[in-house]
Amino acid sequence: MATNVKRKKKAEVMSDDGSMTLTGHLKELRNRLIICAAVFVVGVIGFLAISDKLIDLLTAMAMNANYTFVFLAPQEKLMQYFRVSLIAAVIVTIPVALYQVYAFAKPGLKRSESFFFRLVLLFGLALFCVGVLFAYKVTLPFMLNFLVTLEGTDYITASISIESYINLCLTMFIIFGCVFEMPLVTIILAKMGIANPEIMKKGRGVAIVLIFLVAAIITPPDIVSQCFVAVPMCLLYFISIFLSGIFYKPKTDDDDEDEDDEEESSDEE
Q: Distance between CA 101 and CA 69 in Å, rounded?
């Protein structure tokens, strides 16, 4: 009886030719979603236990610039502990989720595609961490030290709400983490024949204007904050031009013919 049940379950997951059935794919997808959810829940609980240390880590650079913090609502300070814990858990869960996506799609990938996907995951995570570290060690300390000097008079002191400060820190971390992905995105687009280095060189003036425009939208409304975001973005854009020149692979007629052949073969099937 038990043997028949096992055979029935195996038949639901695997077809006669050894490939996985739709039910099997759905079960695998469910298991991988459960893994992601479990990592997120454990992350929230774990980061809540050390949330005071995370807040201390974020406020340390502002305290060095002689900032003082206040909370404007009774629950504001407590909510920041939950916010920081949730965001930290999301950051930890994202690489796990991306790996689960890779593991789910791996059976359908070629060996070269699988290797390239792993490299993208690894370098994408590394570049995001470098961007966050750059914001924490360089951009935010310089910005905070400069802004505190703008008080100008003895009777005006900076009393920043802890919520607005945490918002600034998290915004800068997300911005710089994403901005530092620019070289990796450029390499991918260059290998696909999309990121043409010559076009990027000719359009660098427009790109710089757009970068400063984006920086003005996503940063606090002062020119210093905009420059602290825009200048690294411009440097990364020029690095991306250099990398696109190395990895650029223009599309040829043979590539188009191969794509047409693949479409025809899929239509015949």
A: 41
